Structure formats: structure tokens, C-alpha cells
Amino acid sequence: MNILVSNDDGVFALGIRTLADTLAAAGHQVTVVCPDRERSATGHGLTLHKPLRVEPVEGVFAAGVTAWASSGTPSDCVKLALDAVLEAPPDFVISGINHGANLGTDVLYSGTVSAAMEGVLEGIPAIAISLTSFACKNFQPAAQFALKLISQLEQQPLNLPILLNVNVPPVAAEKIRGAVIARQGIRRYFDQFEKRVDPRGKIYYWLAGEVMEEGTAELPLLPSNTITPLSEALSAVSAQFVTDVEAIKDSYITVTPLQYNLTAYTALDFIEAWQAIHLPR
């Protein structure tokens, strides 16, 4: 298969090299188009006010892997690859292997997830894959899982406008307890802006943060008189699946389907009723 690989950690990151080389060793045609430096937490940002530059990369990946480094964001890289670099659309877009988790609400900021979502927007099956540790350097279990997953998707396509967000625990392969389908959890951060002064005497701030709270992401509770059959059905489905945040702690690989449609369907009826009373006419 023809596979486009990107990331947000940059062209020299060990994660993307392990992924691309593993896919190529299995006989896949691999093209890497990724940022020329780390572009983590850029979300779905695009470069609109300056040109994008792209350069071929040699000596980083295994023989047979075609690689390009771009000055843009992860989303830029995938758009550029699909519209300008590749001669034909790939069979898959895979983003990663990310250095660090993309669990729960991390996906709202993640350049890794956004790169994969760009593939979905173009109708191409996509996977975002992350190793949930910055310290762990063993990306091979994650790469092997990605290899098995695309093989399964090749045989049994989902045919849905979604991406699969995969998180792999930072443990030895034999200690991984399996893979589970999980729903999105919550990760809240305690943000700190450290105030500093540069050599010219000007003040600047450096953002740092730690995970403050991890838990479940339940459907918002509507007033009791506005509970609908849809919200009840969705709550029932939600109860069947563990969250990605919980499952990763138990050494499971988590696979979470994500979509680009952010409509809060359970709130539509409530908002419609509110509109009749409160919105100006």
C-alpha cells in the first residue's frame, strides 16, 4: 500500500523514523512529509501569510522511504503532500509516532491528531498514533501495532469519515494487556506562565503545564425536563466503553474513533427551545 506518514515532532524524531522504517520493511510504499522541526500543540493551524518551503531529506530513514521536510505545521504538511508532493492519493495517512500522549482533551491541541484529520477531510483513512511517555524511547511496539492495524483496515475498511486515535502504553511489548476500543476521556492541565526577561530587558512568558486531573468525559447533563431519547441512548452507549485515560493506565492500547463534526447533537432540542424564548427576533 501507499502510505503517507507525518508527525508534529519533526523530521528527526525517533518516533516517525521507527514508524516509517517499520512500514517500509513490511513492503509498503512510504512517503514522509513532516515538519522540519518540532511543531507540537499547533492544533489544526495552517500557514497562510508566508510561503511553505519543502526540502528532500536523505540519510534519516531506511532505503526506499521518500522523505520531505516542510517549514509548515503538521496540517500544512499533509495538505501539501496530498495536493502538491504525491502523484496520487495514498491509501492511508498515518501521523506519529508521537512522543507523548494524545489522550482525552489533548486531541483539541494535538498536531499529531490534526495531521491525521487532514487525511480524513480528504476522504483518506487515517490513524494518529502516540506513545504515552516522553521518557520512553521504545517505539517498536507502537510501530508493530500500527502495522497490524492498517493490515486489518485494508481487509475490513471502516468506510466512515473518522480517524482512529491510538495511544500505546510505555511498557515492554509483553506487558501490553491488549487493545481496546475506548471513548475520549478528560485531561485537565494546571497552566503556568513563567515570566522571564530577555538579554535586551524585554519581558516574555514561557508556558509550562502539568496534568492536574484525569478522568471521564461524560455527556453534559441537561435539565431533567429536557432529557431526550437521543441523549439517553448516547449515555447508554457511553457507559459500555472505558475512557482512553483509564485504559492506558491499565497498560492497554487504546483506539478511539474521532470525527471532525463537533455538533453537540444532544443539545440541539434544548438550544432550539431556548432560542424561542431568549433570542431576539
Show the helix and strand layout.
Layout: E1 2-6, H1 14-25, E2 29-35, E3 54-57, E4 66-70, H2 74-85, E5 92-99, H3 111-121, E6 126-131, H4 140-155, E7 163-168, E8 179-181, E9 185-197, E10 203-216, H5 229-239, H6 244-249, E11 253-258, H7 268-278
Parallel strand pairs: 1-2, 1-5, 2-4, 5-6, 6-7, 8-11
Antiparallel strand pairs: 3-4, 7-11, 9-10
Helix pairs in contact: 1-4, 2-3
Q: Would you kindly provide a written description of the structure presented here, covering whatever features stand out?
A:
Strand 6, helix 4 and strand 7 form a beta-alpha-beta unit. The mean pLDDT is 90. The longest helix has 16 residues. The chain has a domain of 180 residues: Survival protein SurE-like phosphatase/nucleotidase (Stationary-phase Survival Protein Sure Homolog, Chain: A, 3-Layer(aba) Sandwich). The chain is α/β, with parallel strands linked by helices. The strands form two sheets. It has a nine-stranded mixed beta sheet, with helices on both faces. A two-stranded antiparallel sheet has the order 9-10. The protein is globular, with a radius of gyration of 20 Å. The protein is 28% helix and 27% strand.
Question: Care to give the gist of this entry?
Answer:
With 281 residues, the chain is of the alpha/beta class. It has seven helices and eleven strands. Helix 2 (74-85) runs parallel beside helix 3.
Name of the CATH first level of the domain at 2-181: Alpha Beta
Radius of gyration: 20 Å
Q: DSSP helix count? A: 7
> For the record, what is the CATH homologous superfamily label of the domain at 2-181?
Survival protein SurE-like phosphatase/nucleotidase
Find the CATH topology of the domain at 2-181.
Answer: Stationary-phase Survival Protein Sure Homolog, Chain: A
Strand order of the largest sheet: 3-4-2-1-5-6-7-11-8
The arrangement of helices and strands along the chain is: EHEEEHEHEHEEEEHHEH
